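Ticket opened by: R.M.
Priority: normal
Category: complex prediction / small molecule

The reporter submitted a protein together with dinuclear copper ion and asked that the result be attached to this ticket for the collaborator who will pick it up next week. Submitted input follows.
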Amino acid sequence: MQPVLSNLGFLAQVVASTQSTLQPAGPAARTISHLSWVVYGTFSVVSVVMWILLTWVAIRKKGTLAEHDPVDVGGGHGWILIGGFAIPFVILSFMFVFGLQAMQAFPLKPDSHSSPEIQLIGHQWWWEVKYIGSSPYLNFNTANEIHIPAGRTVDIELKSADVIHSFWVPTLHGKEDLLPGQPNHIRIRADQPGMFQGQCAEFCGAQHAHMRIVVVAQQPEDFEAWAAQQRTTAAVPTTSQQSRGQQLFLQGPCSMCHTIHGTVAGGGVAPDLTHIASRMGLAANTLENDTANLAAWITHAQSLKPGSQMPDITQYTGSDLLALVAYLQSLR
Ligand code: CUA
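Result attached by the on-call engineer:
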């Protein structure tokens, strides 16, 4: 099979969904947006006043600078005290208080009575997403895609499995680092259902730029349905081709790294594939999840994302590769 990369669908979604801090879709991002506009507005006014004064001085003193002390623009020390000390003090104090107030919108710890609902673990170069339920049977894992109920605040614990990464979905929240050995917390909330693009915002190695994440905010009932589906064990093959694909997956190298719940595949170093077909992207959302890209990713991962932990699985070609892809695509 010739690997044909069809990225258009996913790219169209990326273009359609904004990734700008200035178009907030939740309370945390709104706080940041307000702060940005206040800072931008205040310092725009300061700049304009500065340029007006500078122009005025230049015009007034044109041709006469040589006869004067360059510092003396008239008015004695009053200029220095007011313009150089009093006004900056007032403006910077205002910005400081305003900034402190904005920071209160970002608590460092989750509510004392609630534990995080999601653990987000950064890997080179993908996102492991662990949903923590109130009982162990409610737990499940996915990757590179976080679903949340719209209109409700969700606590996320941020961790790293290797180096420093940074979680940044600009329309929902500011950047927050994922540090090895030091969990961080973030609280996100989306006002309305929608899809919010984000990416790793801390250089973390060769494929840092290919570490995208998407947050899908859903109506609460849609979210519950999605979560219930994600908790189920993997679909059982229904065709001989899918059975062949499952056999190849379980007997080949795939199961060394990947988990598929309901099978013996229990590898823990790569994304959980129990419901891989329900996800929009592959390779941390750098490829659309379709037949051609799945086949290409299995056989040419090192060309698509050089240096990633996913090796080129070149032993599968022809009908074997098609069977493996068919099996993975049955895992909805
Ligand atoms: Cu992870 Cu940059």
